[in-house]
Amino acid sequence: MNIDSMQSIIQSNKRSQLDRTPVFKPGQIFCGKVRYIDPSNHAIIQIGGEKIIANIEAPLDVRKDYWFEVVKTDGTIQLKVLDNISNNDAFLSFLHLPKTKLMNEFLQQWKQMNFSFERNVLTKVADWINQVNDIQKVLEIVQQMDKHHLPMTDVVFQSLLSMKSSSPLSVLIENLYQQLNQDSRAKNLPIVQTLQHLLGKDDPNIAFSLNGSDGNKIHQLFRQLNTLLGMNYEALINGAEMKNLPLKGQLIQLLTMDGLPLPVKKEAEQLFHKIIGTQLVNIESNGLLQMTLSLPLPLAEKVIDANIHWRGKKTEDGKLDPNFCLIIFDLQMPSLGTIVSRMQVQNRTINLYIFCEDDKIEHLSQPFVDLLKENLKKLNYQLAAIKFEKIDANRQTNSGEQNLIPPVQSGSLDVRI
């Protein structure tokens, strides 16, 4: 490649270079391969699948990989080559990390990904890998944190991890309730009553109300459960002290208590991370929204999770647009198994898809189709079609969203922790 063609690349990439520059900050470290250096020390550096233009003041070999540290990002990115780091073991020594097989595998995968982080973040990621013992899972979460500009903290990581691997919300609530009741000091705390109410143990009429056909009652129950969990806790508190804290606020109080028994602390942390994780996966990008909500639903047989996913956009006044959206309900029913309803709304016309394990669902639903059409018509919606599809009882997806909801590709998140 000659100098003229190099200048052409610099000019053609100037806009994308400026767009990428904020990704880099002084002190960040990444592994890259030098593709070309011109006489003025401008170089093309490849980081994973990306190429950047940088200024390097060091003799380099275009056939080798190097670890770079970002010196400055004004205009052209200026990089410094980390001396005497020729292999993974040398880099692990530089980070003061153990030279283990797991850490070597981590660095190999890190090199292949388009990542650049400060040294302390690299060591933190290494600590997470040692905790979880699953490189791929950790790097997927770190990639998600980086993509959505989330802080690289233990709370955020553990919360996103809980969305991938922890027990359902209803199980975590039950586990903490049992642990608190076994502790003489903790069982009289206000949080015990909140957990009891979420599990329907103090109100047998909750389960009964779900068996009726009154949608208003179910809607009120969902709102009540959402408020009890504290999903909108930050918006409600708004700097003022609340008389009745929701579960999220009570968990914060519980986790700051001195002498909290280890089993109680462990269950409280898992539940807290689950709630935070649910908030973190709610994404807003260019007016498009993706929201997930999990609620403990107290049925007569047992408490189950009602997983609700919503995709859509906001209107000009900032409200959710009821004319165009995608709503998914995912339920693990005690007798009927998995039921996932996928409702696509286009200009107030609804196409409804029911995915279920039990063949009887389609037959059992037929008497309610006309009633559904009639009630939707009262709300100025038209039901165009209902389709049923049998799903595998051994499906590997989490709450159905991986197969049924396309992810939001980019954007920022409103995070309050």
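[next item in queue]
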Amino acid sequence: MLDKTKNAAAASDAGWLTLFSGGNAIHSLVLSGGVALHALNIYIVTTVMPSVVRDIGGLDYYAWSTTLFVAASILGAALSARLLARAGAGGAYAVAALVFALGSLACALAPVMPLLLGGRAIQGFGGGLLYALAYGVIRMVFPATLWARAIGLISATWGTATLVGPAVGGVFAEYGAWRAAFWSLLPLTAVLAILALSTLPRTTSGARGPLPLTQLTLLIGIVLVLSVSGTLTATAEQIAGVSAALVLFAVLVASERRAAGRLLPQGTLSPRSPLAALYATIALAMIGMQPEIYVPYLLQELHGRSPLVAGYIAALMALGWTAGSMTSAHWEGGRARKTITAGPFFGLAGLLTIAAFMPIISAGFAAIAVPLCLGIAAVGFGIGLAWPHIVTAVYAAAPVGEEEKAAASITTIQLFAASLGAALAGMTANLAGIGEGTAQGASSAAIWLFGLFALAPALGIASARSASANRHIQNQEMH
């Protein structure tokens, strides 16, 4: 038994070493570098935005810096498969890096907020391309045995950016050099473009077909409506905004079913489609993660933690995702397939734990710190544990000829679900009384937020079971 354990560990180490040796090493650097650039930009800009507003004004448009960035990121992700087919991996990365650099340059030079918002939209489009291209290119440059590890590496990259980004942004903000934050991205982007062009394959598939313009327009419309709804304070206005988004979503689904140019791979909207179950599991996981945005506020208001401490406790969710991915990325066969079902259980347990302990203020923070931190980390760990194998399952279930579209759709659905979840979290928190500015209102919001959002991983358990039972996923286990 001991020999089997040693052999398994040696095989795992060999797999990781293979990912960082020979030609795989430079491919790993390019793919993780693109994701790191997108992620670092998100956290750096979030940190320096107060300095931006103090310098060039535009406080009324503060939230739109994120809104336009996310909307453009979703658009970029949705179009990444087409760019990959037309320009090849190397060309697609170079184009994405160029777009990202132009957006960063516009932000660095912006004299007023409207121009900075335009730069943020361009940045978001390029960043969405970079993020989605990573999932599309993994299956092109690595053998199937390394796919899960490569996906785990991407997760680790994002988790690292969660810690590094705010610290780097804080340095720029501390010295009043917010423009330098954008300038600093340009040389990194140039290096990424050069490496991608010189190392990634340039083979094109020549794929053609009509653009899904109607679906893309509806998708962006939904994101904008949800973003605006999240900024409203009146309950009736929020409900109206979410209702409008649901109507647009129904129209989106109907359009996708009958369109010649599809946003998703063929057959995805069929209830029996393996992709439908996998994408649903991804969406529910991302929705369940969104109450995280209120963790720093609740820790400060209910438990008197400093902004720095509260921020890093909230970051445990992202670190949990990284830990989960690195834990399971080398698993294979039935063990790997079971992570797809096991992941939502961790999310459910984590959210219920937060709902139980976050509102407790009488016992003191020391009494609840350990279970609360474990609950926060568990939410991310569950998603990370399943993530490498959900993504590889999408690769396996993709219709022939639509592999790039299936891979790009992962990011599109991930970002869209995050936007939906954030809007619903805002509405839930406001309805629960967080706007009262009292400890009672914050406590009520904590219970409703994390308790209600536990429904997402609960539903995710059912969709994950459906996905892991599909023959495509079981066939993948045998190979």
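[queue empty]
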